[in-house]
Every structure is written in structure tokens, then in C-alpha cells.
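User: C-alpha cells for this one?
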Amino acid sequence: MDLQCIACHTEYPVLNTFGRMFKLGGYTLSTGQGESPPFAVMLQPSFTRTAQGQPGGAAAGFGDNNNWALTQASIFYAGRLFGPFAEKIFGKDAAAVANKFGVFLQATYDGVGKVWSWDNAELRYADTGTMGGQNVVYGFYLNNNPTLQDPWNSTPAWGYPFTGSKLAPTPAAATLIDGGVSQQVGGVGAYVMLANTLYLDLGGYRTLGAHFQKSLGVDPGGETQITGLAPYWRVALEKPVGAGSWEIGIFGMAASTYPGRDQSAGADRIVDIGIDSQYQESVGLHDVTALLSWIHEHESWNASQPLGSTSNAADTLWNFKATIDYLYDKTYGVAVQYFAIDGDHDPLLYAGSLIGSPRSDGFVLQANYLPFNKPGGPSFWPRSNVKLSLQYTIYSRFDGARTNYDGSGRNARDNNTLYAEAWIAF
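Assistant:
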């Protein structure tokens, strides 16, 4: 679109109202002024310090503590599928259809793992119409990460914290829909936004072939493999409230899965159901976004228990996140999140926990400075931007432990993490 970041974001990647409509429109809105393909680049150099070092190194090639890294570097192609060239390729009439196809493609270099791979990827077709005298936006998508298509920041793919250290311990337990199959699956679906109020989305996901994943830099070893088609659903309502907009919705996915891609004992059954809400208000110099998310997962270990991977025949797991993100004058920001993960005790499933528990909870505190967010980048690169962040994660419990119950391992607070990052986009 050749617009400054604040056209679509309060601070990236938090979408504002216009940004959500741009995404619903399949990334295809254009001013018609650009003649370059819609490429972008992102760099994330960082520094990580944990309260206590990690014996043997935080990762291969890194020290026990106080580590500098390029967390990741990404190349994006995002916008109209054919960029500004559709009319030259297809002619004027056909270009009107071709320009309804949009794409979001991200290839990422992991500076900790030292590998390139595909990242979030999505192809859309979007159009508008009317129904009962009301405006309708509808579309179809192919993507590789459940909730990637969602226009709000309260679902997992684009939820807070937006970035974090890859050189610090993180809780072991996570629901399947919260990143458990991202970049491992292919999904197809359709969505509609009725009268800028009711959003409906129905899709399905299946694990991609092992050779295909490897060709794109993903290691399929040990992953949870979805067999058949796992249905995904989403319903949300958005309404003006006061000076802002309020969204509340539900989402979920149900999957039959082979644990570790092992088909010898049959399939497990995992069902995730989430509730989310977002309130966003932009008044004068102030931008406030409040996010809530709760996901409940029911796990039937029809295969995992016979294989000796779980103690129980069935378990439940849930996670909760509550976040406030505030930005002043499009430049100075703070964010606070409380998070909690808990569920049934299962000594085999949570073998890394001293008490066989998935319980982790704590706070993420973050300060942001975006010097070019409002005025644009320097004259030699006006569309460049940078977000300087200082993030501190505080754990009350970590993988079930508050203290060292048996005198071994780490206290929860040993994993408290200071993470400094420059998120550079251009």
C-alpha cells in the first residue's frame, strides 16, 4: 500500500480498525501508486539474561547466560499476489479478478538454531458484497497456522507477547492450537464479516508431508501429526463501545493425532475450545488495547498411553492470558500481561516437572520505544521503522515448581528473563 505502519497498526503487530479491514480484504487494498513488489524485511537483534544461568549453555554455541543473538531475520512478501503487475500480465479486465488474490508470505532465519524455514504463510481471495442491505466482506484462504487468518490480536498466532527470547527456558505445556502445529500444517477455509459486526470462519487443517516440511526447513521429527482433516471454527462479534470497539468470540479445533508421527497404536483425540475478547480505543495521543484469551484442551490419549507417553488415559490443559497494551503519541509504549497454564497432573506427560504438573504462571512486563512510528523513517528510507523493547518475564511457578521440592533443578524464579530487542522493519 506504500503507507506508514500507523495506517494499519497502533504499534506493529497490533492491528487497528483499518488494519483489520485490510486483512479481511485479503491484503489487496492498494493506493495504486507503488511500482515495486510488496517485499519487506525484518531483523530482531537481541540480548537475553536469565536470573540464573543454564549449565551447558542456553543453546548450542551460546553461553550459560548474558547472550547476544539475532533472534530472527525475516523476508516478507505481503499484499496483492501479483503485486503491481496484474494488469501488465493479464490485461485490464482479468486484472480486476487477479487483484482480489492476496498473499502473506514470511521466510525466517532462526539466529539461534541457525536455520532458514518458511514461517507464517497465507493465500487469500477476498471480495465484498451486500446481504439484506448490509455490507459483507468474504473470502477464502490457504494457510499454515490455525488463527493466522484472524483479524484480532486476541487469538494465538498474533497474540501477546509478540516476540520473546529463544535463549531462555519457557514452560513446556501448551495447547495444540497455541503454536503446537504452526508451519507443520496446511489449512483451507472460508470467512465472512457481516455488517462490520459478525465474523464467521470455518476451515480445516491437516499435517503436511514430512518431505515437504523438510524442503521448507521444518524438522518433522517427533511432531504431533494430524490425521484426516481437523475442523477449525471461529465466531466473533465486534461492536462500537464508547470511543472504541469491543470484540468477543469463540474459536476451536478438534484433531485426531498420531503422537510423534507414530501410527502403531492408533490416534489420540485433542479438542481445543477458546474464548477471547479485545477492546481497543484510540483517542488523541492515547492508544489502548486490552486482550483476554482462555483456551481449554481435552486430551484423550488413546495412543499415547499405550505407547507409554502418558500416565493418564485422558487429561485436560488450559491457559489464560490477560494483557493491557498502551501506546502514547504513537511512540512510547508499555504492556503488561498475566499468564497462567494448568491442568491435570501427569508424571509421564510432564516428565520435566518435579511433580508431574503443567502449572506455570507469572507476568510479562514490557516497555517500547518506536522513534519512527509516527513521522516515518529517515529521509533515505522513509518506510523503515524500529521498535526498541525491554521485556521482563517473572515466573511464580514454572512447570509445576515454585521452589526446588527435592533440592534439585531450578526454582521458578531462576527462569525470570530480561530480554532486550530491536525489532527493525523496512
